[in-house]
Amino acid sequence: MTTTRRTQQQRRDQAASALLNAAAELVVEQGVRALTLARVSERAGYSRGLVTHHFGSKQALLERLAHATQAGFVPGLDGLPPGLDRLLRLIDGYVGALGRAGVAHRAFLLLWAEAATAPELAPIFRERDEAFRADLREDVAAGLADGTIRADVVPDEAAIAIVGQLRGIGLQRLLDPEAVDTERLRHSVTEQWRRALARA
């Protein structure tokens, strides 16, 4: 029986993934202020030097964590053209995914909430929110252009409202999972946005 040896890149990727997962677990369990490179390395079972080699600083680690946890939260959207249909699928998928959110996505929401009072987090999450709003604005602009979205909808205002609602539902789910039934809620929230945006 032969075993395939992992390449150096595969070992680096595996270590980085384990370190990010350890960081997410620590954020969920103890909050960002308790997060240190030493604790991340201990949790992941690697040396402190490897954590420093991969990220260099706590700030860089938090930036990577924010990017990694937000990416791919709603699968299945990549092949869809921008517009109202994609926007509504994103809303539906996002609320549904909150019910299945793993430790990484819970860490993202906790870090996002803490960014309001943590100067080291604020720039990271301003950038993440702006990227999210930009995607939403693109969908609204495309819907305006093809006539599926009402002409009086302002893309930036709609994007701000959608991000606020989705993140707010996520935080409520973290605080009281039993009170926030995401499977039921996803349909009503999506329908609210359909009625708010769609041209009659």
Automatic annotation (TrEMBL):
Cross-referenced SUPFAM superfamilies: Homeodomain-like, Tetracyclin repressor-like, C-terminal domain
An example Gene Ontology molecular-function term: DNA-binding transcription factor activity
Entry-linked InterPro entries: BetI_C, Homeodomain-like_sf, HTH-type_TetR-like_transc_reg, HTH_TetR, Tet_transcr_reg_TetR-rel_C_sf
Domain (HTH tetR-type): residue spans on this chain: 13-73
DNA-binding region: 36-55
Keywords: DNA-binding, Repressor, Transcription, Transcription regulation
PROSITE patterns, alphabetized: HTH_TETR_2
Transmembrane segments: none
Pfam families according to UniProt: TetR_C_6 (PF13977), TetR_N (PF00440)
Protein name, as recorded: TetR family transcriptional regulator
Record lineage: Bacteria, Bacillati, Actinomycetota, Actinomycetes, Kitasatosporales
